[in-house]
Amino acid sequence: FAYSTANTAQFEDFMSRxxxxxLTEFMDQWIYGALHPVYxxxxxxxxxxxxxxxxxxxxxxxxxxxMPLSFVAFxxxxxxxxxxxxxxxxxxxxxxxxxxxxxxxxxSLPVVISKHSFTYNAALDVHTAVSQATGTELLVTQNxxxxxxxxxxxxxxxxxxxxxxxxxxxxxxxxxxxxxxxxLRVNNLPSGEYFVRLExxxxxxxxxxxxxx
Length: 213
Known about the structure:
Low-confidence stretches: 126-135
Helix content: 10-25%
Mean pLDDT: 84
Number of strands: 14
Strand order of the largest sheet: 5-2-1-7
Structural class: mainly beta
Strand content: over 45%
Distance between the termini: 37 Å
Order of helices and strands: HHEEEEEEEHEEEEEEE
């Protein structure tokens, strides 16, 4: 398009081919759609180390925007960035640390165009919330060829999904009600950060994991 013009559809097509990424959802939300997400978020801890973040989107223009959301947890001189894929209007995310959390900040770069509130709520109890929302804990570890997912026995059929940081689903598998573990194959995926999501009839658990080759 040198010395000429390109319309929005041509730009989307060019960038999709250059990046090897389907930008349909992104363009629908941020280019063709209206306005931006409005987040009402709260955080709390259990025993100081287990973090719970509640995310609610309250905008009226669309049910939800799908975005990876970044939070920074602080302890003395330590700052750890964690990311969760927010792809529902209301979700709860969990993360365990080895230290007591002093404070948590949202989107400190900033990256997400939004209006938001993010407050501490001492009433949030991580372990009770996990039990009520999912009936299980989700643990994810990486080996050379897979993300190994472990959880307590499910009380109902569930779905295990794998997303990249663009919010694209790269794997999905249906789990039986008695499942306790599953290995997601990653030998064909590039290095980077991914989100493993366990969905059951009673709730959702999400974990982020880095794939390093």
